[in-house]
Amino acid sequence: MKFERFSSQAVFLNRENIDTDQIIPARFLKVTDKIGLGSALFTDWRSDPAFVLNTPAAATAKILVSGANFGCGSSREHAVWALWGFGFRAVIAPSFADIFRQNALKNGLLPIVVNAPTIATLPADALFTVDLLDQTLSVDGDTRILFPIDSFSKTCLLEGLDELGYILKHEAAIAAFEKAGTRA
Amino acid sequence: MPPKTLYDKIWDAHLVTPETDAPAILYIDLHLVHEVTTPQAFEGLRGRGLKVRRTDRTIATMDHSIPTISRSLSSVDSQAADQVRRLESNCREFGVQLFGMDDRRQGIVHVIGPELGLTQPGQTIVCGDSHTSTHGALGALAFGIGTTEVEQVLASQCLLSRKSKNFAVEFDGALRPGVTAKDMVLALIGQIGTGGATAHVLEYKGSAIRSLDMESRMTICNMSIEAGARAGLVAPDETTFQYVSGREYAPKPKDGAWDRALAKWKALPSDQDAVYDRTVRIDVNSLEPVITFGTNPGMSIPITGHVPDPSNTADSSARARLEGALKYMDLKPGQQLLGHRVDVVFIGSCTNSRLSDLRSAAGVMRGRKVNPAVRVLVVPGSQEVKRQAEAEGLDRIFKDAGAQWREPGCSMCIAMNGDQLEPGQSSVSTSNRNFEGRQGRGGRTFLASPLTAAATAIEGHIADVRSLGGF
User: Fold this and answer.
1) Cβ of A133 under 8 Å from any chain B Cβ?
2) Chain B interface, mutation test: which of A32, A43, A66, A177, most B Cβ atoms within 10 Å?
């Protein structure tokens, strides 16, 4: 699946260190497929009717904005599947936990690193445009914020490249490595 | 040649292709598999018509979803039972060796790897589980991966990876009685924060690490991920070699295999003048037992300390974080945790369920009774731990004290199998995460060492083991 430019409103979670147990609690990890997890996203926090994900605007938002160290804790890729299933296509945060970031990139969910002071200036009701090709986040069509991403991940997302296919193209090198080492 | 760290050496030795604009292709020596994070990966292989490339480097067990009250799947819900059966059928179909529920080698994946000698110095090890960092205690580069990566490793025995930075943690000094490896790692996370080591690999060094036994080193490496680290490492030494020697999958003396392995392992420690991107030093001489009070493992205090007061915190986001944590944990600013009533004590998990952990808890509980208001679960990390503990009579000590002695599994660390807190209940737990709802929806978790957990079980409220003795 290719990552396309899109515009959307955002949901703001003003909280740091949001761990994957909050994104999707372990009791939802007994599934054996990837689909249908959107309904379990932040399920315990959503039991509060005032929680931001329960607002009508959240239902159509494709962008989640969070505090630093988003996705810390468990390696569960279910966290990404749940965010995707709910409709999110990008998460904006000052930093991401390593495993979550990897999982997100592998599922077409774009982790956008924006520093905390800049996030604090983002208007809650704006229309945001995410352009991966330009690596920009636009606010109501003008303010453009540049965000970093490594060129390999960018290409994979834009072209919908399959990482396993990429690894398997190196079969000769893998076989040579196995033969050379004591690993054979 | 420039000096290298232990991490540099293991990384370089496993490069199939180096890192350029594209990530490196890193060869994986050992892939550990469990029931929760793999069904979708096997399904992916099936969809692509791929096989498991190296069934000889892939080992499966079940630990998260399985019952600990008995070995009958009728004691977990049908979804958990289905997941366990799915692992069985996937392993059969793809030819992966499985240590199933009734196998003598079954256990928590991060307990059995070292225990069976599967985990060895210098290896690369992955598992769809963030606590894979545990295996770093033996000087192996071990880290957790997502399910897409599990599929990649099953198919190719390789991963796309970018090199992390080197972060040295120097623990110096001698631990005082009643203070353990768990307290050391909680103190570290408290100091650098729950995201303090993101994008780094930690190497634990110093005299206090050298004098720890292997199981204590595992406890420390296990919680590397709770500081956000990609992995945690301890350089292999005589303690390591003695631990590995003679284990089921360890190299054998026959044909010189052990000597060849040993020669390689002895070259692994970081070069003397190796450079680290960051270094933190912690003096353990004055360290007290540590306990968490909040909702991430970085929120901790010495056991005799007071819960911080948010009004003393200048930074507004830190203040909000603290206020939220105290509200969830139902604690008052400035209060002591000593004497705080708890409902459950959980002794187990990949952090603290090994024989030495059970011995230290049993030492405190021997000849005493647990407070009748507290439910106490002791869950050994593996069948082997369980056998050894029973051979020593530790199970009798626990049962005589009024604790439950269970079958091996992850149990109440992750609360997937029915072992869980009820809403509003509190636990002192030897596990690794105190996130909201981690041990059951609405449950409140205080992380601590097995000594502190055992003392709490006896007293019925959070207690300082140093006032009880028995350690």
Assistant:
1) no
2) A32
Contact B155 A166 (CB under 8 A): no
pLDDT value of position B248: 98
Q: How confident is the model at residue B366 (pLDDT cuts 50, 70, 90)?
A: very high
Q: Which two structure tokens, joined as six digits, stand for B381?
A: 């990390």
Per-residue pLDDT at B337: 98
Transcribe B81-124 into DSSP letters. Answer: HHHHHHHHHHHHHHT-EEE-TTSTT-B-HHHHHHHTT-S-TT-E
Tell whether B321 lies on the interface with A, counting CB pairs under 8 A. Answer: yes
- Give pLDDT, residue A1: 83
d(CA B71, CA A102): 36
Report all structural domains of chain B as residue ranges with CATH numbers, in order of start: 6-278 (3.30.499.10), 293-467 (3.30.499.10)
Considering all CA atoms of chain A, what is the largest pairwise distance in Å, rounded to the nearest integer?
60
**CB-based contact, A16 to chain B, within 8 Å:** yes
pLDDT digit string, tens, across residues B197-227: 999 999 999 999 999 999 999 999 999 999 9
Q: Is the minimum CB–CB distance between B262 and chain A shorter than 8 Å?
A: no
B200-205: strand order across its sheet:
B231-234, B200-205, B165-172, B278-283
| Closest residue on chain B to A101 (Cα) | B146
Residue A53 tokens, joined = 């994900």
Q: Which residue of A has its CA nearest to B158?
A: A167
Q: How far is CA B422 from the centre of its chain?
A: 24
Q: Are B296 and A166 an interchain contact pair (Cβ–Cβ within 8 Å)? A: no
Q: What strand order describes the sheet that includes A110-113?
A: A10-13, A63-66, A90-93, A110-113
Q: B287 CB contacts (<8 Å, ≥6 apart)?
A: B173, B175, B176, B179, B183, B184, B187
- Distance between CA atoms of B44 and B466, rounded to whole angstroms? 53
A111 and B211 in contact (C-beta within 8 Å)? no
- Domain boundaries, given as residue ranges, for chain A: 6-149
| Nearest-angstrom CA–CA distance, B325 and B310 | 10
CB B458 within 8 A of CB B360: no
The answer to whether residues B119 and B142 touch, using CB atoms and an 8 Å cutoff, is yes
Q: Under CATH, which number does the domain A6-149 receive? A: 3.20.19.10
- What is the average pLDDT score of chain B? 97
Which residue has tokens 């709910």? A86
Q: Report in angstroms the alpha-carbon separations of A165 from A102, A156, A162, B185.
A: 17, 11, 5, 39
Residue of chain A nearest B201, judged by CA positions: A98
Distance, CA of B49 to chain centre: 35
Residue A182 scores a pLDDT above 80: no
